[in-house]
Specification:
This protein has no helices and 6 strands. It is mainly β. A 6-stranded antiparallel sheet has the order 1-2-3-4-5-6, with no helix packed on it. A hairpin with a 4-residue loop joins strand 5 (42-48) and strand 6 (53-59).
């Protein structure tokens, strides 16, 4: 596994994610988020706060 980079900029419920693959975004409140990856896939994430446990589902558009 090689090196990777990711920086997240938060503007309330909107997150802009800058990585080596490009710019992605997500929006959500609480433990649910939905967004787009730099590759153009839709990503839905459901997490349990404080545990580090999360479920992600990607869908190609």
């Amino acid at each position: 596994m090689g090196w990777s980079f990711r920086k997240t900029f938060k503007f309330g419920p909107l997150h802009l994610n800058l990585s080596g693959k490009g710019l992605g975004w997500s929006i959500g409140l609480g433990s649910f988020r939905i967004g787009k990856t730099p590759e153009g896939q839709t990503r839905k994430t459901l997490s349990i706060p404080g545990t580090g446990i999360r479920y992600q589902k990607n869908k190609k558009d």
